[in-house]
Amino acid sequence: MQVAQCVKIKVRQLSFAYGDHTVLKDLTFDVQANTVTAVVGPSGQGKSTLLTVFNRLWEDIPHARLAGTVRIRLSGNERDIYHRACSLTELRRQVGMVFQTPNPLPMSIYKNVAFPLKLVGGSTRSQTRDRVKRTLRQAFLWDEVKDRLKDDARALSGGQQQRLCMARALVLNPEVLLLDEPTSSLDPAATETIEQLILSLKTACTIVMVSHDMAQVERVADQWIALREGRIVAD
Ligand SMILES: Nc1ncnc2c1ncn2[C@@H]1O[C@H](COP(=O)(O)OP(=O)(O)OP(=O)(O)O)[C@@H](O)[C@H]1O
């Protein structure tokens, strides 16, 4: 059966500047739902900046400004994420992010994944337990940590820490997952596991990832956006 494609993210005439340094210039593109889109290009071209546009993470940076529109289909409705009616808390729940260097919180493996649920509130202890277990399975980590859930998360290997961070981002069921060079600090085996994980997550969410590694992009991405001097180029 053919699954109808729908547009998840609609970017129109997006420009972005830090003070008088314009980093993104007049970008227009769509991201289809349940796909992996890679953002590629040389260093300093605005790839990480573009990711932060999708969850408004840049907004506290002094003198940073954005023009154009970014619409994301969330809970079935297309939303202008910069409209004042769009709640930042809700946006951040639905658009998760994982960074280049794994950043586990200084607490147990279990508590790392349970943390966002605790912040949001409303889950019983057994609901939290079930959700943490399900998410650790989804992040390909359960079998490796099920007997040491109370251990400090910082004792895990780099690859395990990154999968834990993916689990922490996934536990609230985000519709969009932003990954900023998620494997750049990992060895080839850990990288392969994360790539398998990314592919498996396509059924659950739409992924936008920054990568410097074109071989990786070929392996995991359905489309890519190449940035050069702030514009999209066709390579
Ligand atoms: N908070 C900030 N304030 C001012 N300028 C910034 C800020 N963050 C990034 N920049 C500048 O914006 C430009 C784009 O940075 P960005 O990190 O988005 O690029 P990138 O393509 O992700 O780079 P890399 O591949 O090296 O991570 C760079 O010139 C950078 O110095």
From TrEMBL:
Organism for this UniProt entry: Desulfosarcina ovata subsp. ovata
Ranges where the ABC transporter domain occurs: 9-235
Entry superkingdom: Bacteria
Keyword Nucleotidyltransferase among record annotations: no
Record's keyword terms, sorted: ATP-binding, Nucleotide-binding, Phosphate transport, Transport
GO molecular function: ATP binding; ATP hydrolysis activity; phosphate transmembrane transporter activity
InterPro entries: AAA+_ATPase, ABC_transporter-like_ATP-bd, ABC_transporter-like_CS, P-loop_NTPase, PstB-like
Pfam families in alphabetical order: ABC_tran
Protein name per its UniProtKB record: Phosphate import ATP-binding protein PstB
UniProt GO cellular component terms: membrane
SMART domains given in the database record: AAA (SM00382)
GO biological process: phosphate ion transmembrane transport
